[in-house]
Amino acid sequence: DVKVTQSSRYLVKRTGEKVFLECVQDMDHENMFWYRQDPGLGLRLIYFSYDVKMKEKGDIPEGYSVSREKKERFSLILESASTNQTSMYLCASRQQSNNYGYTFGSGTRLTVV
Amino acid sequence: DQQVKQNSPSLSVQEGRISILNCDYTNSMFDYFLWYKKYPAEGPTFLISISSIKDKNEDGRFTVFLNKSAKHLSLHIVPSQPGDSAVYFCAASFSGANNLFFGTGTRLTVIP
Q: Which of A69-97 are b and which e, b meaning 16 or more Cβ less than 10 Å from the residue's Cβ?
């Protein structure tokens, strides 16, 4: 069964900390995505990557960066965590040839205090 | 600007009855539509999809209807079960798009 694995289910970090959220997929997918989910706002795209070392800004990239050194791994970095980055973070991947369907990870609930 | 909208943040139905979740979109380039289901503390899972060349797609208890002229789609769940209680996201895309465009979600509660 195909899988997208997010390294942490729950994280609590302090304001100003540098935070790394890791995502690994085992499906050899070219495209990977980071979303955040907030009540009333749905899923908002932070960054995506269509290949190794490639990245594109999504709708809300401010305060975030990403890294994709290997095809299977896509990391989201909060350079200096702030309380408004408290959220559920969801990683997803898809094949380049499949324009539509994503496979999501289980999510990381990040709380910044 | 929200291109995919789910105007009902929540919906409650009795077990055994029909649940109807609605979704509207503004971008006429969208040619594929999906519904995802999300339980708390889990990632969304794909439920059902429809291409713009169709107006209906059925999979067991789940049916999606597409009205292109109204830029509207709906998800029908019949009969509703307590295990269907979740947040449902509508999503849309078009050929060549980099990503899916998601709605804000509707929380469905099925009352036993």
A: eebbbbbbebeebeeebbbbbbbbbbeee
CB atoms under 10 Å from CB of B69, counted, come to 5
DSSP E strands in A1-113: the ranges are 4-6, 10-13, 19-25, 31-38, 42-49, 56-57, 64-70, 73-78, 87-94, 103-104, 108-112
User: Distance between CA atoms of B18 and B32, rounded to whole angstroms?
Assistant: 24
Name every chain A residue with its beta carbon within 8 A of the beta carbon of B99. 33, 45, 48, 58
B18, B78 contact by CB (below 8 A): yes
What residues form DSSP beta bridges with A101? none
B20-30 pLDDT per residue, tens: 999 999 999 99
User: In A, residues 27-46, which contact B (CB 8 Å cutoff)?
Assistant: 31, 33, 35, 37, 40-45
| Residue B66: both structure tokens together | 């597409």
* Residue B75, min C-alpha distance to chain A (Å): 17
Q: Is the peptide bond before B79 cis (omega within 30 degrees of 0)?
A: yes
pLDDT digits (tens, 9 = 90+) for A56-99: 999 899 999 999 999 999 999 999 999 999 999 999 998 766 65
